[in-house]
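DUF4437 domain-containing protein structure dump, as promised
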Amino acid sequence: MRAHVEMINEADYVWHPAELPGGTGEVLEKRLSVDEEDGSSSLLLEFETDWSRPAGVPHADTEFFVLSGSITYDGTVMGEWEYLHVPAGVPMAELRVAAGTRLLHWREYGTSRFTVAGERWNDARGDVTVTNPADLEWKSTLEFVEGPLSPLYIKMLHHDPETNFYTRLIKAPVGWEEPRMLHHPVYEEYFTLAGRTESLHGDAGIGTYTFRPSHIKHGHFQTKEETIWIIRCDGALENFHTVDSWIEWGGTAVNYDPEIHPPRPSTLPVRSASTGPWDPRRA
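structure tokens r here:
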């Protein structure tokens, strides 16, 4: 299980040599969150030189999202906000990354191990997908999930129909609000790509990262600018709402049974130095 990380700006992480076996070039990584039990990792990569890796097989479900710069996959150049997904055990083609490129990189249910020129695993599911969000239309969240008081807008980058694991872009118009407290039966992870949001946990601008394990309460959101996040969940997202909230996790359950889906009591999570100390009047 990963630790709860609440609104840490990327500037407050330190650089490490990147763990990208089989590749050639100089790459640094910031470890946004890591599961020390199964090796799952959420990483920010910065390529100091051109980098390349030959075709092979990743040992974890693998995702790349281009923040800036470009990558070339199987001869196709991918630019800003384009997305590559490779299931564990599925062969992927050669990958090249231009110097100066910044990527978000996720490895789920496995480590960084990579078998060059490997063959497809017998139990592998799915295929490699390349997605350009510019080719997709924004769709209202009301088409996907019940609960929001006003719609957000989604572009689905990846969805596993067997586990309901997904990665998607979510856009909130300026002035969007969610005054209730929320928690979910699955984990929720996001990185802010554009805009700024206020909440009980503080302000979240571009480069702000959060990882919430299941049943961690959060809320009282308001967007000060049009805001776009890339969000991942390890299952179907349900919004459990609490009103009349008190202290950190008390209140009146609205649409869930607190015996089945209890909000998890939590100490204060790690805090971003850029954001400043916790304000007990808002935390």
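The mean pLDDT is 90.
lmk if u need the other ones
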